[in-house]
Amino acid sequence: MTADVTYAERGASRVEPMPPGYQYLRYETFIGYGGQTMAAATEALLSFEMYREMGLGARLEDDVVYVKLLGITTRCRVLWSEATPAKAGFTYGTMPGHHLHGEETFLLTHEPDDRVWLQVKSFSRPARWYAYALAPVTPLLQREFARRAGRALRRIVDRARV
Q1: Residue 126, preceding peptide bond in cis (omega within 30° of 0)
Q2: Where are the alpha helices (DSSP H) in the chain?
Q3: Which of 104, 139, 134, 132 is nearest to 7 (CA)?
């Protein structure tokens, strides 16, 4: 296990099969068409504007993402990031103090048919007592988060076209 993440399977949200013993999320949504869409979505994703559009506080410092929701700030280590005209995204993993153990990958792809897609993949398990209590609904909450992320990116892309 890497000293600053809370699980052993570093990078496993980018491959199949994902590691056993976790809850999983696999979600994909259409963002739009074309290079302009990809560029605007990439900027919004990698600058964490997508998070702010969803009403979350988010900042990146020294490869650590700080996300604030309802007065609680969590930290995740950025493990991978990439930005090309065809593929852009990042993976982050939970750090000590987070309510979950696991990681999440956000990946934008600009396909040969000119469509732009967002894929969100994660694996997680509870790390705190309240996360154990919420475990039955955690997959629903994570899926809703992914849906909101897609809607936020579409709104940002639409504004960039004006």
Answers
A1: no
A2: 34-46, 49-53, 129-134, 138-161
A3: 104
Tokens read off for 36: 């302009």
Give tens-digit pLDDT for 105-144: 999 999 999 999 999 999 999 999 999 999 999 999 999 9
> Is 80 within 8 Å of 90 (Cβ atoms)?
yes
Distances (CA, A) of 115 to 41, 112, 118, 129: 12, 7, 10, 42
**Per-residue pLDDT tens digits for 23-36:** 999 999 999 999 99
Tokens 């605007």 — which residue? 40
Domains in the chain, CATH or no CATH each: 27-161 (3.30.530.20)
Question: What band does 95 get if pLDDT is binned at 50, 70 and 90?
Answer: very high
Query: For residue 17, is the peptide bond before it cis, meaning its omega torsion is within 30 degrees of 0?
Result: yes
User: Which residue type, as a one-letter code, is found at position 72?
Assistant: I
Residue with tokens 């999440």: 104
Q: What's this model's pTM, rounded to 2 decimal places?
A: 0.94
Q: What is residue 162's DSSP assignment?
A: -
**Which residue bears the tokens 């056993």?**
20
